[in-house]
Amino acid sequence: MSWQPYAAQPDSTVTGTLLQWEGVGDANHAARTMLAWLPPSYASQPEKRYPVVYFHDGQNVFDAATSYNVSEWGADETLTMLAAEGLEAIAIGIPNGNERRYHEYSPVRHPGFPPEVPGGGGGDDYLAFLIETVKPLVDTHLRTLPDAKHTTLIGSSMGGLISLHGLLTRPDVFGGAGVMSPAFWACAGEAFGRVRSSPPIRGRMWLDIGGREGNDHPEQEQAYWNDAHAMRDLLLEKGLGERLHFQADPEGIHRETAWKVRLPGALRFLLQN
Questions:
Q1: Domains plus CATH for the chain?
Q2: Membrane spanning segments where (predicted)?
């Protein structure tokens, strides 16, 4: 197996060079197709190495044809635009496990799920899958800068939670986290306790939130909004200072269309090493 050209569909919306590696899994994760987007200069500058951004919910990142929410992040178009500014990176899309998405992205088990249901608690296993299985396929076969300083996680909602968790628990691997529209309420505030008890936090973090994240459920919208602002304050107390960028959009919704708008700013901040 190896990286192969992306199998585009007739209605695909991919810009640039996208590769795929089929059948990637481990003992805890069903096989899935990894995606790798290459910067515009990759083919013409064979000696150049690039930072890497790992995107969760990878089926929604590059191609609207594969997105389960109809729209996509537009990471390929955004990175093409940033390349024209002199900021280039390889982008990796890691598809979620469909009905196991919550389990994979949650660091703790949800008390409301019966024992036979995968109701969270798979976050550390998911990071191990990324570090021990996915990252070697990227670093061995593509021209990366593999150190933590040049390795970033980014995701939204539960993907934002696992990005934060990765930065806190594996700073030896990840030096940046994009925490977009985080659903802190979904894990009963576990992230707050982990941040409070963590040693000084290394790396850079983008944290953002919208005012309409709850899809017209006022209590949930308020929970998203309040929790994100409380996390901002806690991270500043932990000393992140200028290594933290916080952005709040009162009109922002909980969809790829909103994350697509904020993605250029997030990547500019996270990749400015």
A1: 4-270 (3.40.50.1820)
A2: none
